[in-house]
Specification:
CATH topology of the largest domain in chain B: Fumarate Reductase Iron-sulfur Protein, Chain B, domain 2
Structural class of chain A: alpha+beta
Number of strands of chain B: 7
Largest sheet of chain A: 5 strands, parallel
Shape of chain B: elongated
Distance between the termini of chain B: 57 Å
Radius of gyration of chain A: 25 Å
Number of helices of chain B: 9
Largest interface: A-B, 83 and 78 residues
Helix content of chain B: 25-40%
Order of helices and strands of chain B: EEHEEEEEHHHHHHHH
Strand content of chain A: 5-15%
Strand order of the largest sheet of chain B: 2-1-5-3-4
Number of helices of chain A: 18
CATH architecture of the largest domain in chain B: Orthogonal Bundle
CATH class of the largest domain in chain B: Mainly Alpha
Shape of chain A: globular
Oligomer: heterodimer
Structural class of chain B: alpha+beta
Largest sheet of chain B: 5 strands, mixed
CATH superfamily of the largest domain in chain B: Alpha-helical ferredoxin
């Protein structure tokens, strides 16, 4: 029998979660004190889970590789968080949020999970406000909203361009309260390097103390992975430098199925790369598409002149600009979903209309928003016939209030003033919808091992809508896992403390130690970054925004070659038993070198285009993604076999009862 | 602007127990468009290729928000620009032939772990002493719009909450004071009705922990505000002092 039982509750979709909560087991407070839970990662998912589980009375051990839980990469999320509050009276509802998310994900997500996400979304906002998260408010003192891509309502709550930071600091403060009480033991600068499985159940981890280099054993009755996505397999991405797939990859190799790795989000609005020295890419929030208009020159000669710096964007008259998103998608315009916007930018740049030296950039222009806001403000101030300069001045102030920190960030990096000249943007790897397969309870195929947030595959299908990652991370951690984990732990109340002096822990520790020693002993000639950059180039060229069968096969072979070279020619300085940043990176890149090849296997298997997965062989005449619902309306959950090239495919068929499957249209 | 060659004087220290020393390195052909940390990446790549240990420095998001990066650059926290973290500093701020001094944060309460990496866990412990609102997770807190908050207060709370906990304020302060950091959190919550309830207890506990960690006192020099990459205002310190005084004098709250 396949292990893939999604455990979706029966009944109408709007009652499933309520019914399920009533049906599952609960652990009594006295018994919770006898149960230990390990949480890996302290971002929105891991942090909120750790705090909530500790509040319930469980003993939580939380781990992060950063020097403080507050630094997890959720902090960099900019634009906002969705919730179906309908505060704007624009006909929003749980159903509409559910519908938008399933459609946005190109009908490749599990209906029941997404509905639950929409259902708890409002609670998240209530909870965060109660924690003191300073969301943006209007002059009446009530919460403000804005719009994000792929939807027709304003349901995004935000805190300037720093929403992720404020939400994470909220979760961090909830954690701090529990750390102070001793209910969370915090392990900063620790990295999980192996999962320990005893009698088929997750029972602990092996972690390395990144300051002393010591390898440690930690046991628990359940292990929760909330370690984020694997976007750094592309080397250049909007992820943090330390973001990695190691925890997720280790549990995969211990038996957790990995689902849909090819669903990767390439975010349309990032600062274009400038040269070989580049170490990471910076996102410019999608919220900018509320007010920014995306364009390239209509004429090739104008594009060439701009690239040669003979013309400036402001020299191009209105009639010679191609606002290609507004042209192609009049209904959604600049606010089409991310996958659509990214592909459209690539299409224009491939056709020769790119606007920076590399030819890989398009404009994001605020001039008309500045004028519109300026006029509005002048009207409010009772000015008659304000001058053009005055309108611009007033308009720029409004834009600054809305996006000030993003404009500042752009100016620091690019050295151009985006109030005066349009921003240049280009798509970049941002988020991974694929991840560890979990059932409705967020449990992986290893009993007692859970996976939450970006690390799991669950809610976003083949494409995530803007401002939904924060929603999912906090939903999983605050409102889903704390209930569902009880159902499993109710059977653990008599287990007692899990000893760490067992053969399973011995073996796991030995495998970790052997591998680290191996990395140090290769003593080759090339650095970790050398291999990571090469892997990234292969991934971007063949497994990036557009893929085809030949390219994917080539990628698989090249990655295998790079991996073999890595294990024979790597040089890692320093020692095992001390702080060693090169050794940390080496372990992560070793995992990416397996994951990358596996990623291509999944992309090759999926003979259709959907969401972020675009196979050139499968497109409509207009160049839109062409799904194959008959053959591919399934979750591809892969089982590790020892070779990333030959995983075993398990299919979870996706059935749609509450939404009709149809071609996505944003026209 | 063409590429540049630079001389770097960098603090090297094996671990907390060892003595540190300034070492000299040369880097060549650095693009003015690369970031300061990308320049250090180039140096580290060179060191690894010469089979030497790279410089250890803290960094993560590289977009100025996680607060991981630090560095005292030629005598200034986060380098010569105002309002940016080290990771947002670009080499176009330097000239060909420059000598740049790179040191860790220096403060008794933030000891060096290795090279340019320091231990900032004291900040976490201060937050644990009271940097939260005592509300459990539940689906039943009141509706988010239940209590309107004047926009001015909400905006000020946000400005205070923008602190990234990098420690530049401490590193810059001649007294090694953490008042700007602590006051930012105290202010954020003091300005919001949700945080008012515990305001007195919070300020007493956080200040107590701050003193226990060995941070110095504030003498109103204002260097912290100048060097803060997020522009956290000195007003917050004034607000914290008011909160502290009223907690001490008026309220019945005790430390603990």
């Amino acid at each position: 029998m396949s292990k893939l039982d999604s455990k979706i509750p029966t009944g109408p979709i709007k009652d499933k979660w309520t019914k399920h909560k009533n049906d599952i087991n609960v652990v009594n407070p006295a018994n919770k004190r006898l149960i230990d839970i390990i949480v890996i990662g302290t971002g929105l998912a891991g942090g909120s889970a750790a705090a909530s589980l500790a509040e319930l009375g469980y003993n939580v051990k939380a781990f992060c590789y950063q020097d403080s839980p507050r630094r997890a990469h959720s902090i960099a999320a900019q634009g906002g968080i969705n919730a179906s509050k309908n505060y704007q009276n624009d006909n929003d509802s749980d159903y509409r949020l559910f519908y938008d998310t399933v459609k946005g994900g190109d009908y490749r997500s599990r209906e029941a999970n997404v509905y639950r996400l929409a259902e708890v979304s409002g609670n998240i906002i209530d909870q965060c406000v109660a924690q003191g998260v300073p969301f943006a408010r209007d002059y009446g003192g009530l919460l403000d909203n804005r719009s994000f891509g792929g939807v027709l309502v304003s349901r995004t709550f935000y805190a300037k361009g720093q929403t992720g930071q404020q939400l994470l600091l909220g979760a961090y403060s909830a954690m701090n309260r529990q750390i102070a009480k001793g209910k969370i033991t915090m392990y900063n600068r620790h990295e999980m390097l192996e999962l320990v499985v005893v009698d088929g159940k997750a029972r602990g981890i092996i972690a390395r103390n990144l300051v002393t280099g010591e390898i440690e054993r930690h046991s628990a009755h359940a292990v929760v992975i909330g370690s984020g996505g694997y976007g750094n397999v592309f080397y250049l991405s909007t992820n943090a430098m330390g973001s990695n797939a190691t925890a997720a990859w280790k549990i995969h190799k211990k038996g957790a199925y990995f689902a849909n790795p090819c669903y990767t989000q390439i975010h349309p609005t990032c600062i274009p790369r400038s040269g070989e020295h580049q170490s990471k890419l910076t996102l410019m929030s999608e919220s900018l598409r509320n007010d920014g208009r995306i364009w390239v020159p209509k004429k090739l000669e104008d594009a060439e002149a701009i690239r040669a710096k003979k013309k400036k964007p402001t020299d191009i008259p209105e009639e010679d600009r191609d606002y290609y998103l507004e042209r192609r998608y009049p209904a959604f315009g600049n606010l089409v979903p991310r996958d659509v916007a990214s592909r459209a930018a690539k299409e224009r740049c491939d056709a020769g209309y790119g606007v920076n030296a590399t030819g890989e950039a398009v404009y994001l222009d605020f001039a008309s928003a500045i004028e519109r806001y300026g006029k509005e403000k002048a009207h409010v101030l009772g000015m008659h016939n304000p001058s053009k300069e005055k309108i611009t001045e007033l308009g720029e102030k409004v834009i600054e209030e809305k996006y000030g920190n993003l404009f500042q960030m752009y100016e620091k990096i690019v050295d151009e003033n985006p109030y005066k000249t349009p921003m240049m943007i280009y798509p970049a790897v941002h988020y991974t919808m694929g991840g560890i397969w979990v059932d409705y309870n967020l449990m992986t195929t290893i009993p007692g091992c859970y996976c939450i947030g970006e690390a799991n595959f669950s809610d976003h299908g083949a494409n995530r809508l803007g401002a939904s990652a924060l929603m999912q991370g906090l939903a999983d951690g605050y409102f889903v896992l704390p209930y569902t984990i009880g159902d499993y732990l109710a059977n653990e109340i008599r287990t007692g403390e899990i000893p760490t002096d067992t053969p399973e822990f011995d073996e796991a520790e030995k495998s970790v130690r052997d591998r680290l020693e191996k990395l140090l002993s290769i003593k080759g000639t090339k650095s970790v970054d050398h291999f990571h950059k090469r892997l990234g180039k292969v991934m971007w060229n063949y497994v990036g925004m557009a893929r085809n069968a030949d390219g994917l096969k080539k990628a698989m072979d090249e990655i295998k070659k790079i991996r073999e070279e890595f294990w024979s020619d790597l040089y890692v300085p320093g020692e095992l038993n001390a702080m060693n940043t090169e050794l940390e990176k080496a372990g992560r890149v070793a995992d990416f070198l397996e994951l990358g090849e596996f990623f291509a296997v999944d992309a090759l298997n999926r003979n259709e285009s959907c969401g972020g997965h675009f196979r050139e062989e499968y497109q409509t005449e207009e160049g839109e993604a062409k799904r194959d619902d008959e053959n591919y309306a399934y979750v591809a959950a892969w089982e590790w076999t020892g070779d990333p090239r030959t995983p075993i495919l398990h299919k979870e068929e996706l059935t749609f009862h509450d939404i009709e499957l149809k071609q996505r249209s944003y026209k | 602007m063409s590429n540049m060659n630079l001389t770097l004087k960098i603090w090297r220290q094996k671990d907390a127990q060892s003595k540190g020393v300034m070492e000299t390195y040369e880097v060549k052909d650095i693009s003015p468009d690369s970031s300061f940390l990308e320049m250090l990446d180039v140096l580290n790549e060179n060191l690894v290729s010469q089979k030497q240990e790279p410089i250890a420095f803290d960094h993560d998001c590289r977009e100025g928000i996680c607060g991981t990066c630090s560095l005292y650059i030629s005598g200034r926290a986060h380098g010569p620009m105002r309002g940016v973290t080290t990771c947002q500093l670009h080499m176009r701020s330097f000239k060909d032939g420059d000598t740049i001094y790179i040191e860790p944060w220096r403060s008794k309460a933030m000891p060096v772990i290795k090279d340019l990496i320091v231990d900032r866990s004291a900040f976490d412990r201060i937050q644990q002493a009271g940097g939260f609102i005592s509300v459990n997770t539940s689906g039943n807190t009141q509706d988010a719009n239940g209590i309107p908050i004047p926009k001015g207060d909400a905006d000020k709370a946000f400005d205070a909450a923008a602190c990234i906990g990098c420690g530049a304020c401490v590193a810059t302060c001649k007294n090694g004071s953490a008042m700007l950091f602590v006051s930012a959190k105290v202010s954020q919550f003091a300005l919001l009705p949700q945080g008012r309830v515990e305001a007195a207890k919070r300020v007493l506990n956080m200040v107590h922990q701050m003193d226990k960690e060995g941070f110095g006192n504030c003498t109103n020099t204002g260097a912290c505000e100048v060097e803060c990459p997020k522009g956290i205002s000195l007003e917050n310190i004034a607000r914290m002092n008011r909160e502290y005084l009223s907690a001490k004098v008026v309220s019945d709250e005790k430390i603990g």
